[in-house]
Amino acid sequence: MTQQRPSPRTQPRIMTREETVALDRVRRRIAALLFVMVALHGVIGLAVVAEVIDGQGDRGRAVALLVMSGVIGIITSVVARLILGTTRIWSPFWFPLSLVPAVVGYVWIS
């Protein structure tokens, strides 16, 4: 019977500053993407529930749900930018894009 010697343990490699910064950037992007994907379900869900409420004849509550959808969409955009560590919280591209589910929901119930 042949005995196998355990392999020698290697020392963990110490990351350089550039590698640490790059890894941190990737971690932030993944965290922001996961947050946006989870929050987007709620934003779209509010628009769908608004359509159901409108179908029951309560247009005022449906519009209130769409307003909440827009506000939560904006909050989601701001929090995602904070997770990414950007210096500007408001973006001329992401701000209108975060309102798209609410606008589509309003067009849908009209």
Topology record:
Layout: H1 17-55, H2 59-84, H3 94-98, H4 100-109
Report a brief summary of the structure.
Helix content is 73%, strand content 0%.
Number of strands: 0
Q: What is the rounded Rg?
A: 23 Å
| Number of helical elements | 4
- The 3D shape can be described as elongated
Order of helices and strands: HHHH
Describe the structure.
The protein has a domain at 35-108. It has 110 residues and is an all-alpha fold. The protein has helices spanning 17-55, 59-84, 94-98, 100-109. The radius of gyration is 23 Å and the shape is elongated. The protein has 4 helices and no strands.
Which features characterize this protein?
110 residues, 4 helices, mainly alpha, single chain
